[in-house]
């Protein structure tokens, strides 16, 4: 069935093992983030056996489907009050930045006879979630430690996702200092000091990670074999553990310039076209409803993506050395945005591949 996302389990397991080894070399534990592939249970079950410390996701719905896997579950997105019951039921550790929500978590945990662990988020300048002022942060710590059914498990931060602020020895050093101050002032150990996501790998591998950081949350580094601060390939990992395969539904020679007065396209944009003469154009059965076309790359480097509507993607195959026909397939490597949307779409079929000897396109 097409379009199809092929998920190569041996390559993913290799990437998990490689990233886990990197973390362990630096005395860090690893939370494996599963959201980019929608935490497909069969995938998570297979690859979480590779020395993973935590499972982490932004959706309670995904963590609910992973209850059969015996690893602590972390909710990365700060909880909505409307989902508090499910958080207490299906999540072991949640990231938080609002006292009102923490009070609600405490009430629900008390009603269920549970102790719920939380990680308090501190904003180091990326300006997404977290407390921004240290005075307020420590007042919240005071309040949290008074709650009977909430355990302060640790503190954390997020970098690069919104403001694109890079992890550094200086900003993560501040987080480490905050953790040490909590331990000193309250005479309690913090088990979990999370220094960010896949964008922190470069800092780690350069041996510049400050002492006191104990955890990284890794998603894209595992899925695509890249650190996300500079977009560099992580040595020894696969970049093609996920591959998109699409079927050609039309193959014709047509002008490169549409004919007539140009108005808005289906998405309200006014497109601009370059006159490249007559092109051999292949249409494949996938579109913007299914995938972010800016997040995919043809394996055949002589194919050009011209654009897409909701349901069709148009390719320039003029210069390809392969003589394509209707019914043939074309393969694409995926970047983060392409993978996220392909996995979210119910119209993209998912195939798990367990054959370790399948052709390798991009191993570094």
Automatic annotation (TrEMBL):
Keyword Metal-binding: no
InterPro entries (UniProt xref): Ala_racemase (IPR000821), Ala_racemase_N (IPR001608), PLP-binding_barrel (IPR029066)
GO molecular function annotation: alanine racemase activity; pyridoxal phosphate binding
Required cofactor(s): pyridoxal 5'-phosphate
GO cellular component, one term: cytosol
Pfam families given in the database record: Ala_racemase_N
Residue ranges annotated for the Alanine racemase N-terminal domain, each copy included: 7-221
NCBIfam families per UniProt: racem_Orr
Protein name: Predicted amino acid racemase
Lineage: Bacteria, Bacillati, Bacillota, Clostridia, Peptostreptococcales
